[in-house]
């Protein structure tokens, strides 16, 4: 009996100990239901820091609708079930905007919770079309640009600016993001073929394949080395694939998605050249826009480090466009803010213009800076905006 | 002649004293009732707080209760450790998704589904029942083969089932959406359906344990040779338990799907397998009370540690554990519990009103 009571009371005590605290909501509150621990932290934290910089700027300039923005946050622990709880907990703390994880899969539970509560949610940097109306609901947005735009941008740019004619498509089937890049490439390719380009071959691999020797052999056995390889992949497998391609003596241009941006991995492939990445802003200190360089300096001052990749930037644009919509709507009420966001057409932000429509809460066209890596040194060599936006039927498959 | 041979039996065996009908049920029903009351108490406290994240946390716990009770039905009664049950949870979760997502969405995201599934849009409780039966059917088919094995071979074979289900669901693009999230599952944020599922699971587990089959299975667990010699068909009894636990795991899967609204194959893999097994082992592997209390206790502990990680205001300062300490602390606490009580907190006993019963 005593034993039973002990267990029961311990159980009840522990259950009660897990009681959360309730907060008031008498100001504008931005709730971050993001990964503060676990593997998503590497993606969520930098973008969240950037968002905080914009929030600080707004507060310093007198706040939003005359009120200061307060921030509440809850850790998703990079876990989906925890994500739902984190979403609900920032909602309970009065969030007017719910910011969720970078990745669609991990951000969706919190975004769905926000949608249920009728609140605006923003994915920090998800690049799947599902991160928005299609996968969450009409109050959900993504702060980044669709992966398909990256594939389309790189192929069109390589054809028009680099005179690449023969393309090869190499897809890592691991994630939606990778497939998205190649979807954009697949949509752009017929247009380029009509102008003289040619898809000379395609292949797939898996991110954790230790060797892609078979795929490389097939590239090597082509009558002529392709001018450009569209490499639809992401970290960590990207490094090994790039290394193997170059070690096999294939010197074609390698076109990538933004997922490989950053200099942290370059020492693994010494003297890498002829390697191109689309970015929303440059972390290498050579962004053509001096305001971006100013932002980089502020970021370093606030966090102690330079931005590690371009995925820092969407966090800043996110608060920027949301705050503008709130100012125009003169309220934080979700439907009014969504209506204002959907009116945005080529709304200027630090990292290129942003457009939202009633069909798509994501960017199906964007200005990208092209970063070229030569002898292991990355630098911006130009910028490109695709000739027409990626249409819905190429995005939703 | 035959009469003569029968009469040679000793009188105690020739004329066994039959216990009254439902005597065992009457004697043991207090356990599931107490456990259900415990669960109801937790639910009522939850509703009274009115806090949404707390409500969601408790829904999670109810789902875990279903899963761990499902594990108990097979593992507890047969003594065979199964690593494969979360596979059936995966089957249940996807079946619930197939049956409840808006047909318009399904046609674009899961075009490979047969047309009767593509057109279907059932309320969540109907889909949960069908999902549970589907998982049970799969368990029956797998079990038919697996239950001939015993000991570590059976455990590893169940693990192979898990890996197989996971691989199929991670790659069958047109039917499961492969590794992408399946979205559009209606989310149920009221705690009562989950409470109902947990109580149903508890009563099914109890009903099985005191049934002829459940008793035979436990006899086979404790004394396989003697049980077999007494006419217990061990593979058959194990198969029955395996299929019933498959049904409960499927129900838990459907509940998981409706609680988060998103399913992906990797949700139902090693992480969930080990946490549910740990809850069962810590609570007491061969006791229904152990299964339920293990979940409540470990979940409460996890929640409390997370709360500490998030920070607790103490006067003017905030006391917070370093992020990630929760997993370490949980591991340490589990080791301590198992070191002190190797058979789990409850051991093989059940909670009753008046005394702690030996679970025979």
TrEMBL record, chain A:
<feature type="signal peptide">
    <location>
        <begin position="1"/>
        <end position="23"/>
    </location>
</feature>
<dbReference type="InterPro" id="IPR028082">
    <property type="entry name" value="Peripla_BP_I"/>
</dbReference>
<comment type="similarity">
    <text>Belongs to the leucine-binding protein family.</text>
</comment>
<feature type="domain" description="Leucine-binding protein">
    <location>
        <begin position="28"/>
        <end position="376"/>
    </location>
</feature>
<dbReference type="Pfam" id="PF13458">
    <property type="entry name" value="Peripla_BP_6"/>
</dbReference>
<protein>
    <submittedName>
        <fullName>ABC transporter substrate-binding protein</fullName>
    </submittedName>
</protein>
<dbReference type="InterPro" id="IPR028081">
    <property type="entry name" value="Leu-bd"/>
</dbReference>
<keyword id="KW-0732">Signal</keyword>
UniProtKB/TrEMBL annotation, chain B:
<feature type="transmembrane region" description="Helical">
    <location>
        <begin position="149"/>
        <end position="170"/>
    </location>
</feature>
<dbReference type="InterPro" id="IPR043428">
    <property type="entry name" value="LivM-like"/>
</dbReference>
<protein>
    <submittedName>
        <fullName>Branched-chain amino acid ABC transporter permease</fullName>
    </submittedName>
</protein>
<feature type="transmembrane region" description="Helical">
    <location>
        <begin position="86"/>
        <end position="104"/>
    </location>
</feature>
<keyword id="KW-1133">Transmembrane helix</keyword>
<dbReference type="Pfam" id="PF02653">
    <property type="entry name" value="BPD_transp_2"/>
</dbReference>
<dbReference type="GO" id="GO:0005886">
    <property type="term" value="C:plasma membrane"/>
</dbReference>
<dbReference type="InterPro" id="IPR001851">
    <property type="entry name" value="ABC_transp_permease"/>
</dbReference>
<feature type="transmembrane region" description="Helical">
    <location>
        <begin position="190"/>
        <end position="211"/>
    </location>
</feature>
<feature type="transmembrane region" description="Helical">
    <location>
        <begin position="54"/>
        <end position="74"/>
    </location>
</feature>
<feature type="transmembrane region" description="Helical">
    <location>
        <begin position="239"/>
        <end position="261"/>
    </location>
</feature>
<keyword id="KW-0812">Transmembrane</keyword>
<keyword id="KW-1003">Cell membrane</keyword>
<keyword id="KW-0472">Membrane</keyword>
<feature type="transmembrane region" description="Helical">
    <location>
        <begin position="124"/>
        <end position="142"/>
    </location>
</feature>
<dbReference type="GO" id="GO:0015658">
    <property type="term" value="F:branched-chain amino acid transmembrane transporter activity"/>
</dbReference>
<feature type="transmembrane region" description="Helical">
    <location>
        <begin position="28"/>
        <end position="48"/>
    </location>
</feature>
């Amino acid at each position: 009996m005593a034993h039973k009571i002990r267990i029961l009371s311990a159980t009840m005590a522990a259950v009660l100990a897990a009681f959360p605290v309730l907060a008031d909501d008498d100001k504008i509150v931005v709730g971050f239901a993001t990964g503060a621990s676990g593997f998503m932290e590497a993606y969520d934290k930098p973008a969240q820091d950037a968002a905080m910089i914009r929030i600080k700027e707004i507060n310093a300039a007198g706040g939003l609708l005359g009120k200061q923005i307060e921030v509440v946050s809850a850790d998703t622990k990079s876990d989906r079930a925890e994500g739902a709880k984190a979403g609900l907990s920032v909602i309970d703390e009065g969030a007017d905007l719910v910011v969720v994880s970078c990745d669609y899969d991990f951000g969706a539970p919190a975004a769905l919770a926000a949608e249920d509560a009728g609140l605006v949610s923003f994915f920090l940097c998800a690049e799947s079309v599902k991160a928005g109306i299609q996968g969450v609901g009409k109050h959900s947005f993504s702060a980044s640009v669709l992966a398909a735009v990256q594939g389309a941008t790189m192929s069109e740019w390589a054809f028009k600016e680099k005179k690449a004619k023969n393309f090869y498509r190499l897809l890592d089937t691991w994630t939606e993001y990778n497939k998205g890049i190649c979807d954009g490439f697949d949509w752009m390719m017929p247009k380029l073929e009509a102008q003289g380009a040619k898809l000379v071959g395609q292949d797939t691999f898996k991110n954790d394949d230790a060797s892609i020797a078979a795929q490389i052999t097939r590239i090597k056995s082509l009558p002529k080395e392709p001018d450009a390889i569209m490499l639809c992949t992401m970290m960590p497998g990207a490094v090994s694939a790039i290394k193997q391609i170059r070690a096999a003596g294939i010197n074609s241009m390698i076109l990538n998605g933004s997922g490989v941006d950053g200099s942290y991995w370059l020492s693994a492939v010494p003297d890498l050249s002829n390697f191109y990445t689309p970015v929303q802003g440059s972390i290498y200190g050579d962004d053509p826009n001096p305001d971006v360089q100013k932002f980089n300096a502020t970021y370093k001052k606030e966090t102690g480090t330079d931005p590690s990749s371009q995925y820092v930037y969407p966090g800043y644009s996110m608060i920027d466009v949301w705050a503008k919509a709130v100012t125009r709507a003169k309220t934080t009420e979700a439907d009014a803010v969504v209506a204002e966001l959907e009116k945005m057409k080529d709304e200027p932000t630090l990292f290129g213009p942003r457009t939202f429509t009633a069909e798509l809460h994501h960017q199906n066209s964007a200005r990208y800076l092209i970063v070229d890596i030569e002898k292991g040194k990355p630098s911006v060599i130009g910028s490109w905006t695709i000739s027409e936006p990626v249409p819905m039927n190429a995005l939703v498959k | 002649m035959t009469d003569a041979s029968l009469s040679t039996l000793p009188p105690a065996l020739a004329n066994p004293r039959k216990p009254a009908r439902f005597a065992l049920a009457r004697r043991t029903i207090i356990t599931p009732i107490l456990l259900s009351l415990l669960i109801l108490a937790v639910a009522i406290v939850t509703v009274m707080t009115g806090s949404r994240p707390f409500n969601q946390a408790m829904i999670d716990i109810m789902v875990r209760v279903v899963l761990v009770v499902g594990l108990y039905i097979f593992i507890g009664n047969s003594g065979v450790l199964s690593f494969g049950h979360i596979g059936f949870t995966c089957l249940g979760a996807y079946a619930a998704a197939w049956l409840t997502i808006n047909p318009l969405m399904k046609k674009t995201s899961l075009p490979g589904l047969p047309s009767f599934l593509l057109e279907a849009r059932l309320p969540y409780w109907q889909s949960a029942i069908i999902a549970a039966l589907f998982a049970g059917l799969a368990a029956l088919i797998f079990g038919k083969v697996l239950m001939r094995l015993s000991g570590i071979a059976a455990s590893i074979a169940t693990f192979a089932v898990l890996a197989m289900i996971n691989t199929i669901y991670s790659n069958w693009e047109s039917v499961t959406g492969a590794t992408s999230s399946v979205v559009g599952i209606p989310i149920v944020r009221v705690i009562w359906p989950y409470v109902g599922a947990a109580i149903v699971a508890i009563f099914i587990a109890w009903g099985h344990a005191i049934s002829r089959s459940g008793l035979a299975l436990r006899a086979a667990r404790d004394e396989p040779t003697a049980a077999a010699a007494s006419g217990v068909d061990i593979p058959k009894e194990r198969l029955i338990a395996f299929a019933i636990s498959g049904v409960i795991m499927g129900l838990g899967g459907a509940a998981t799907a409706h609680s988060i609204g998103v399913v992906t194959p990797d949700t139902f893999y090693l992480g969930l397998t080990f946490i549910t097994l740990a809850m069962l082992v810590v609570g007491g592997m061969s006791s229904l009370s152990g299964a339920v209390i293990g979940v409540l206790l470990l979940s409460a502990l996890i929640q409390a540690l997370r709360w500490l990680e998030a920070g607790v205001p103490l006067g003017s300062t905030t006391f917070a554990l370093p992020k990630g300490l929760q997993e370490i602390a949980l591991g340490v606490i589990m080791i301590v519990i198992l070191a002190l009580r190797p058979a789990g907190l409850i051991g093989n006993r059940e909670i009753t009103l008046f005394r702690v019963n030996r679970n025979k």
